[in-house]
Amino acid sequence: MTASGEHNVDLGPADLADGELREATAGGLSLVVARVEGRYVVFETWCSHEECPLSDGWLEGEAIRCACHGALFSLTDGVALEGPALDPIVVVGASVTADGRVAADVSTLHA
Ligand code: FES
Question: What pTM was computed for the model?
Fold first, then answer.
């Protein structure tokens, strides 16, 4: 994946270690940037269950655990691996630019 896509937005420095996440904003969206086994992913911060911020959660392998009620979402395809959430979240892949920035097309994420 390249960082030159016309829809890519800058999501801050690519300074996370594997298993770390942080909040980011772009285009009015509240997002989470996470590094999962060497790759960066981006997803909307609001859990699909009752909209707790997933930025308060933590990574478990290639998944994010919601801190509110314990739902677990895949960071490969966004599906809810464990309830109580039933609906998926939208996860997009991000790239790292030559100058060390996280960049992603977040146009498929919702406000
Ligand atoms: S709000 Fe995330 S599991 Fe309930």
Answer: 0.91
Domain residue ranges of the chain, discontinuous segments joined by +: 8-105
Counting from 1 in the atom list of ligand 1, the atom nearest the Cα of 71 is: 3
**In CATH terms, is domain 8-105 a member of 2.102.10.10?**
yes
pLDDT tens for residues 83-109? 999 999 999 999 999 999 999 999 888
Q: Which atom number of ligand 1 is nearest to the Cα of residue 67?
A: 2
Please state, as a whole number, how many other Cβ atoms lie within 10 Å of the Cβ of residue 48: 18
Q: How many other C-beta atoms can be found within 10 angstroms of the C-beta atom of residue 9?
A: 19
Average pLDDT, integer, range 1-10: 68
Contact 99, 46 (CB under 8 A): no
